[in-house]
Fold this protein.
Amino acid sequence: MGTLDDSAVIDALRRAVAAAPDDTSLRLHLAEVLIGAGRHAEAVPEVAVALQQDGADTRARDLMARALTPVRSEQDPPVRAVVAPPAEPDATDPDPEASGAPEPFDWSQAEQEIASTVQPPFVMADGATGDSSDSGVWEVERPTLTLDDVGGMTEVKQHLQTTFLAPLRNPELRRMYGKSLKGGLLMYGPPGCGKTYIARALAGELQAGFMSLGIGDVADIYRGGTEQNVHEFFRAARRLAPVVVFIDELDALGQRRTAHNSWNEIVNTLLVELDGVEADNDGVYVLGATNQPWQVDTALRRPGRFDRTVLVLPPDDAARQAIFRHHLHDRPVEGVDVGRLAALSDGLTGADIALVCETAVERALMDSVTTGVPRYVTMDDLLTALRTTPGSIGPWLETARNIVSYGQDDGTFAQLRAYLKSVKRL
């Protein structure tokens, strides 16, 4: 149970995290203090954010296991004993309240408590609702972008054509060749390279809904709660088919199972849902994304599950030009050569390029504030921002190199090996 001092410390830590949201150590310290204060439910989203930043963080994984371990506290619903109503008291009986005798069970109050726990129906993109039997609120998008809106990334788009689009659009040929649509596609690579954007574009291409699932969406502090949430998510997806289910940071939700890993049952549940054991997954197209594919349980990459993988690399020249155009669109720019910017930004991720554009805009804005005269964002602003924005994929490449060089590889990382050789990391 937390104390007044606990609350003061937690409030101070929350302010510190708000001021430095990328400080993972600080965020995990806040989660640890919350767990120590018995506020497990509040710790879960903090640890989930840390796992999204680094799914291999051992401390974060341990804290998530602790946060999901149920404990009884003052916030827990009280255990109510069912008491038979007392016989009519006679005049000689003492006052029940004065004697401390239990009150009769209040059935109307119990019904109100049960009703208050019922979840509202899930919300569909067109405003329609499902029924409350789907137990949860799951956001369903209807993306309008298509793969044509994704600049470059030819190999990734070709892979999507082969695994999803061509068989889906040619049902007679699919039947003739016995091509199955079962199984999912796992996209992996450095963070910030557009895996989520590609998944949304695929949903738009299929004219299907888009549902995103991450550890923060389903994590529950009570035993069995997370597994139930995963089940309800897939149940809702089947009702909304055709739909693209995008499992982000798959290494966090589907991390390797061990003898002492509290995550084992969650992975087992995910396997059951992907296999469609309890229901048909027809029309449910599953895409996964991870920065740490070597942390994903091997059972998730067997046939019928995430049996196909594609490496999503930092954007190529055409993609970098498209990203610069996107982030400079509707901004006051003058004399900008996106071709030159793309050539100079080789190796940067889409997120890096977004930061370059923001830094350039900030430079022009501050000049305008200082001089009192608004000015355009120029090529000089962007070149200066490029020089001061280091690429973010170095640490990821080093980890990937170690995995490919010294870890066991069943052929899953063939693309990664070829890429590391091309950039002279092997």
Remarks:
- The mean pLDDT is 80.
- The beta strands are 185-188, 209-213, 243-247, 284-290, 308-311, 333-334, 377-378.
- The radius of gyration is 27 Å.
- The first strand starts at residue 185 and ends at 188.
